[in-house]
Amino acid sequence: MNPLLDRLHPYPFERLAALTDGVAPPPDRPHIALSIGEPRHAPPAFIGAALSAALDRLAVYPKAAGLPELRAACAAWLERRYALPADAVDPATMVIPVNGTREGLFSFVQAVLDPAAGGLVLMPNPFYQIYEGAALLGGATPCYLDTTASTGFLPDLDAVSEETWEQCRILFICSPGNPTGAVMDEAYLLRVLELAERYDFVVAADECYADIYLDEGAPPPGLLGACLRAGNTSFTRCAVFHSLSKRSSVPGLRSGFVAGDPAIMERFRLYRTYHGCAVPEMVQLASVPAWADDAHARSNRQLYQQKFDAVVPILAAVMPVERPAAAFYLWLAVPGDDEAWTRDLYAAENVTVLPGRYLSRDHAGGNPGHGRVRISLVAEPETCIEAAQRIARFASARHPTA
């Protein structure tokens, strides 16, 4: 067996299941799961209709490059969403469909890394665990860049040593961030590009929460827009990852895409040809109208805005709460041990959240997830409100002087 498999950490939800195993929550309160970022909003009906209409494609082997109409829809969405010039993104050479960002992120790293060269893969801490697993199985060493309140919940790029940058092969960035909801402004992204050019590493930008933000007048900027501002019209060394899971509330569709540097995309496409993970054509055809329509994404976003409007005041009455700029998480500071707090909340109120330490790693600087929990506001508004009321009741009883 591949010995690198032994380096993988248990997934957060496995650890959560072990933490709550044997705990008996009150049976008179229905369970509310706010632990996983799985959107529960009703998806637009036209996606299901397009999927059903394309079922004849079950008889067709899909190609790794994807259908031209899907690549064109993805490129057009990028240009609309980030106000890029027309034809800035070439669908033929710059876009590849993937089975959701999780699969795309993992396979991308395997294609980019030279397994004989080692090196570092830098990533925010806390982080989406696939970054770490992809680095480990690619033969590289993860390097964790803490994101804390003191850094605006973004990695402090200037605190990274020159030696570390020289060993960097891939830098993962995530904006809007998971779990913090922090957004990188264009100046930050330009600094990332400057470092990538100076030290010759690839930037992998996970932007899957790009269409979920709380201020309609301030959509988060993206890496490709920063590239154009810097004069990098070929998006050299850069790749962005997008998905319909969050934007369109269809996590089960497993539909996303990677876009960026044509030289990297060409090699990534070769890898995927052998990997055998091409997106089924009926999924691709259902994705075309999803990327072409912005109205349903706006309605989806407004539901999240309404939930933050309702939930934050309930929690703020009993504990400090910071409303994020984007995404659908609350990164809540809790008194004491985050694992114990999570287990006791479940025991008292039948609500599950995720301990912050499960999303981050201990290292010489500590663990930025300790003392925090992630709350996913993915359920319907009334369910989120009820969960917030239960959490507030628990927090008030547990720390009455807070």
Question: Can you identify the CATH superfamily of the largest domain?
Answer: Type I PLP-dependent aspartate aminotransferase-like (Major domain)
The CATH architecture classification of the largest domain is 3-Layer(aba) Sandwich
H/E element order: HEHHHEHEHEHEHEHEHEHHHEHEEEH
Write down the Rg.
21 Å
Helix run count: 15
* Cα separation of the termini: 51 Å
What's this entry about, in short?
The chain is of the alpha/beta class and 402 residues long. It has helices at 12-20, 45-53, 68-81, 91-94, 100-112, 129-137, 162-167, 186-199, 223-229, 244-247, 262-275, 281-292, 295-316, 338-349, 381-398, and strands at 32-33, 95-98, 120-125, 141-146, 168-174, 202-206, 238-243, 256-260, 329-333, 351-352, 354-355, 372-376. Strands 2-8-7-6-5-3-4 form a seven-stranded mixed beta sheet, with helices on both faces.
Task: Describe this structure as you would to a colleague.
There is one protein chain. This protein has 15 helices and twelve strands. Helix content is 42%, strand content 14%. By secondary structure, the protein is of the alpha/beta class. The strands form three sheets. It has a seven-stranded mixed sheet, sandwiched between helices. The mean pLDDT is 96. The protein folds into two domains: 3-42 and 296-398, Aspartate Aminotransferase, domain 1 (Alpha-Beta Complex), CATH 3.90.1150; 45-293, 3-Layer(aba) Sandwich (Aspartate Aminotransferase, domain 2), CATH 3.40.640. The longest helix is centred in the last third of the chain and has 22 residues, at 295-316. It is globular and about 60 Å long. α2 runs antiparallel to α12 (281-292) and α8 packs across α9 (223-229). The chain has helices at residues 12-20, 45-53, 68-81, 91-94, 100-112, 129-137, 162-167, 186-199, 223-229, 244-247, 262-275, 281-292, 295-316, 338-349, 381-398; strands at 32-33, 95-98, 120-125, 141-146, 168-174, 202-206, 238-243, 256-260, 329-333, 351-352, 354-355, 372-376.
